């Protein structure tokens, strides 16, 4: 009898799998994955308060906000290393506790340098959010459904970014901000201690060769692709995370709570766009869709900056920005074109490190222009011109991806000709 083939692999394994038990075990890692998005958006919600608390200008605030991204990017490889050699629950417990400690210091200190260290702690702990979720899925779910569960998990994480906007801003309007911060710290501590009750993952560990990362620096195409990724990430990490709220308040006259809600539509757009972008890439290729995302992002952002769009259309415009941000998924897929199979992990870690450094790149630059233009032109025009760096860098990054795609196409044609 001919064996039936299934689209999703071994369906017999999936059929007898205990989904409820696995989902319950995955809940804590996913909760931390969503929690770290709330911490990531915290400086944007607290911008005016933090500038007064630490007596800093916009440039210094940009540096303060960027420390999160330095911590996140710098700890990508160490956290990945620890997840491979320690129990995942131990890594998750420590990182959640580190985030809580960092937010506690950030809340109660008045010294800007201590606040920068606190932001670095928060970013360092947050680096475990996605890595621990991915590790948990690989441990407790069938490999036939890894992609589907990962997609749902990313959507869950983006819910943290959505509800870390307007709902948290509403709480800040109702209660003293220190009280809200203390509540967020408490949630982090609860996640930390709950992680210790997760099942042991020690038996799944194996000692693997850690080489391969140094070879990435000898790969000019991958470095070129990583720099392009860094330049295109400004909409998400430079605008949505921090500067969207102040921009909407000044340029569109919205309240702080309303502007936080509008900014959340970027993350909703990413939830909508992820499957759409992946589907289009199958037919048009990764590089063509990345360039299309770059065009849509830059065009929509320039329209937002230099044209007074109606207030009712702002959510739609932000959804377009969010769909454009889904290019990041294809950047990681495109990395497989330039990395051998045994080095793909190192290549993805390298790209993700540069991706998160985008926030550290954009925040100080935007803050610098806000400070130096504020005394010369109106505050409305100040934000418009300061944020113009985002679409300009996006266009440069898009051109770089186009060049990589063109080179890849030539390489494929050349290989076929040789055959």
TrEMBL record:
It comes from the Bacteria. It comes from Holospora obtusa F1. This is Transporter YybO. It is a multi-pass membrane protein. GO terms for cellular component: plasma membrane. It is found in: Cell membrane. Its main location: membrane. Keywords: Cell membrane, Membrane, Transmembrane, Transmembrane helix.
